[in-house]
Amino acid sequence: MPSGPKPSRRAALGIGAAVLAAPNVVRAETVRWRMVTSWPKNRTGPGVSAQRIVERINAMSGGRLQIDLFAAGEIVPPFAVLDAVSNGTVEMGHTASLYWQGRMPAAGFFTCVPFGLGPIEHQAWIELRDGQALWDELYRTFGVRAFLAGNTGPSMGGWFRRKLSSVEDLRGLRLRVQGLGAELYAKLGAVPMAVSAGDLLPALEKGSIDAAEFLAPATDLETGLPKYAPFYYAPGFNKPNGASELLISLRVWEQVASDLRRVIVEACRAEHALGLADAHQTNAAALIEILGTYPVTLMAFPRSIMEAAQKASTELLTEIAASSPLADRITKSYRSALEDLRGWSALTADMNRTNMRLSSPKR
Quick one: which of 61, 140, 159, 185 is 20 to 30 A from 214 by CA? Predict the structure, then answer.
């Protein structure tokens, strides 16, 4: 504790007046924003990512920018996040771009595309190629800016009440699925159902849906899906990537100080890396628990379904490209990244498989 004589009241007032009069003194004011999400509070994966981003921004800004976090339904419904940020109800949102493809057909490219880019490939497209610029252009009409803000990694294929033998088994099947995967499954004869994360388990339990595609083992286990569907399918061709997005009103983005903008960007970038690591760790543990606790059978999609799905995906991307000149440019850019990165991705996947075989314990 410092010691010494205290300044007189007159001296103290004089010092205060001098500080207030000094032209170069910056008096920081706290900026307070609200962030809504599409997730239940602390939902494994995206809900946890939203919480960590808020905590990171609050800490890294030194208190100058304070974000208050609200779960789905606390201010707006889960699928109203884009509108809430666009119309100024809130300043920020944490969600996924695939929810907006009904209004912007190319929006799904910024979360995932069936048979498309994986998480690291997708980040390379966004941050090192022209993905971010195209994203900015697409969302500008809504008055928002978007950034990669967490990633749950590749998804599983989903939970099914009945075993699948062929494409015929998908006809009329009521499947909870969203994004471009919903349009793909519709081409295969299934009936896509839009069900929010919070309503997913009751829908499967009551039988209002026959199957559910959500995310990966950790989130699926937390949601309770293994209780009501015995067949767990892979691979998750529908969602090879699990990118979340942070939405910010362009109005407030342009008003906030440049160093605070950098704080937001780096907080999002850090969560993409940590979110992927977290997903890998928690999914590995959750898969062991699912298979050891529940009467669940891990299944591979029949080859006929995979081939039909890949054909449908190619048709879908062609349709999206034809929807507008901007969608065409986004599709071409995405396909170019997929082609350019494919060789190295395949090689590293082979190396990972080899490493797994070499490290497997002898029986």
Answer: 140
Looking up tokens 């946890």 gives 48
Instruction: Name the residue with tokens 């986004």.
Output: 330
Q: Cα–Cα distance between 179 and 181 in angstroms, integer?
A: 5
- Is a pLDDT exceeding 60 seen at residue 125? yes
The identity of residue 76, as a single letter, is V
Antiparallel, parallel or unpaired: β 174-176 and 65-70: unpaired
The average pLDDT across 199-220 equals: 94
Q: How many angstroms separate the Cα of 253 from the Cα of each of 137, 146, 191, 220, 249?
A: 15, 11, 40, 35, 6
Which CATH code for domain 31-153+241-280? Answer: 3.40.190.170
Q: Judge contact between 65 and 223, C-beta under 8 A.
A: no
Annotated domain spans of the chain: 31-153+241-280
pLDDT tens readout for residues 41-88:
999 999 999 999 999 999 999 999 999 999 999 999 999 999 999 999
Q: Are 213 and 175 a contacting pair, CB within 8 Å? A: yes
Q: What is the edge-to-edge ordering of all strands in the sheet holding 211-212?
A: 191-193, 174-176, 211-212, 158-160, 231-234, 297-300
d(C-alpha 95, C-alpha 80), whole Å: 10
Task: Give 128-163 pLDDT, tens digit per residue.
Answer: 999 999 999 999 999 999 999 999 999 999 999 999
- pLDDT attached to residue 357: 53
**Burial category of 351 from C-beta neighbours within 10 Å (exposed 0-12, middle 13-18, buried 19 and up):** exposed
Q: Is 304 exposed, middle or buried (0-12, 13-18, 19+ CB in 10 A)?
A: middle
Check residue 25 and give its pLDDT. Answer: 37
Return the number of other C-beta atoms located less than 10 Å from residue 99's C-beta: 22
What is the band of 10 on the pLDDT scale with cuts at 50, 70, 90? very low
Residue type, 350: D
